[in-house]
Design goal:
By secondary structure, this protein is α/β, with parallel strands linked by helices. It contains 11 helices and 11 strands. The chain has an 11-stranded mixed beta sheet, sandwiched between helices. A hairpin with a 7-residue loop joins strand 5 and strand 6.
Length: about 300
C-alpha cells in the first residue's frame, strides 16, 4: 500500500469502525470488499440483501459473515432503499455499493423525500498516489456527472476541496483542466474555468487556491508551465485536478492507474454521508483505502475537526 494511504489507514486504527450499510453485496467481489474492510477495523458492515444468497456466496468465497448484521431484502432495488433508510435513521453512517448498478443505488440516494440529498450536487473523487508526483492528489469527477454545467462544477470543486483539506493543513491547489491554458470562447471548459476562478475570488467557492484553464502538463509540471510562460500558484503543484467532463476525468484516472502505477481510492461526496464506490478492477489495497477515506471523512464531519495534520 502506498504511503499516503497507509497513513490514512493508520489513522483509522485510532477511530471507531464506521457503521456502513452495504447495498446488495451479492457477488464475491462485493461481499469480499465489505469483509476485508471490516477485518482491518475500518468498517462495521450491515449487509442488506437476500440472506441465503449472501450466505452461499460467503461459503463459496471462504468468508465468515456470521458476525455481521444481515437484513434480508430480496431484490437490489429494495436493498438500495433500505440501505439509504438505515443511514437516514442513524443506524448506519455510510453507504457502500454492492453488486447492483450505480444508477440504482444513486436513485435511492437522490430521492427527494427519502434520500440523502444536500444542497450540493454529488460528485465522485479519485484519491491518487503516483510514484512520480510528490504528494497525493484528487481527480474529479470521473464517475457521476457526465457533462456538468458551471453550477455543478462549482459543487464538484467545493466537494473536492473539503475532502482534500482533511489530509493537508494548507489550502489545496485546484487546477481546472482543459486542452489549453487560455480562455477560448469556442472551448466551453475554458469559459467554465475562468468563471470558477472568479467565483473563488468572490467567495462562492471557499478553502482552495484555484487556477484555470490549465492543460494537464501545466497543472502537474512547473517546468512545462515555465516554458509556456504561465505564472500560476497552482502549476506544477496541483492537489486537485478538476476534469471538464466525466469522459476526460475517467480516461485520465484510468491512465494513471494502468500506466503510472497509481494507487487509488474512490468515494462519492455531496450526500449526507460518504458513499463508497469500488470497482471490480480494484485491488484489495484500493478497496480498503476507499473505505478508509470514507471512515475518516465521516469522523471529521461528526467531530467538526479540520485536518489529520
Amino acid at each position: 500500500m502506498h504511503q499516503a494511504y497507509k497513513e490514512i489507514l493508520d489513522f483509522c486504527k485510532t477511530i471507531p469502525a464506521l457503521p456502513t450499510a452495504v447495498a446488495y453485496p451479492c457477488s464475491g467481489f462485493a461481499l469480499s470488499s465489505a469483509v476485508e474492510a471490516a477485518e482491518v477495523g475500518v468498517l462495521e458492515p450491515i449487509l442488506v440483501g437476500p440472506k441465503q444468497e449472501m450466505l452461499d456466496i460467503a461459503l463459496k468465497e471462504n468468508l465468515d459473515i456470521s458476525k455481521y448484521e444481515i437484513i434480508d431484502i430480496e431484490n437490489a432495488h429494495d436493498a438500495a432503499f433500505k440501505a439509504v433508510e438505515l443511514v437516514r435513521t442513524g443506524k448506519a453512517k455510510s453507504l457502500m455499493k454492492g453488486s447492483l448498478h450505480t444508477d440504482e443505488l444513486l436513485s435511492a440516494v437522490l430521492k427527494r423525500d427519502t434520500g440523502l440529498r444536500t444542497d450540493r450536487a454529488i460528485s465522485h473523487v479519485f484519491l491518487m498516489s503516483v510514484p512520480s508526483y510528490p504528494h497525493m492528489f484528487l481527480v474529479t469527477d470521473a464517475a457521476v456527472n457526465i457533462a456538468p454545467d458551471l453550477k455543478t462544477k462549482a459543487d464538484i470543486c467545493q466537494n473536492a476541496i473539503d475532502l482534500m483539506r482533511l489530509f493537508t493543513n494548507q489550502e489545496p491547489k485546484v487546477a481546472i483542466l482543459s486542452a489549453v491554458e487560455t480562455v477560448n470562447p469556442r472551448i466551453q471548459s475554458t469559459l467554465d474555468a475562468a468563471a470558477l476562478c472568479k467565483m473563488a475570488d468572490r467567495g462562492q467557492i471557499k478553502g482552495g487556491i484555484i487556477d484555470g484553464p490549465l492543460a494537464f502538463d501545466n497543472a502537474i509540471s512547473l517546468e512545462a508551465a515555465k516554458i509556456k510562460g504561465i505564472d500560476s500558484p497552482v502549476a506544477g503543484d496541483a492537489h486537485i485536478l478538476l476534469a471538464p467532463d466525466l469522459e476526460s476525468g475517467n480516461i485520465l484516472a484510468k491512465q494513471l492507474i494502468h500506466l503510472s502505477n497509481a494507487a487509488t481510492a474512490g468515494i462519492i461526496l455531496g450526500a449526507k454521508v460518504p458513499i463508497i464506490l469500488t470497482s471490480r478492477a480494484d485491488n484489495v489495497d484500493s478497496r480498503i483505502a476507499s473505505c478508509a477515506v470514507a471512515a475518516v471523512t465521516m469522523y471529521f464531519k461528526e467531530n467538526q475537526l479540520e485536518s489529520m495534520k
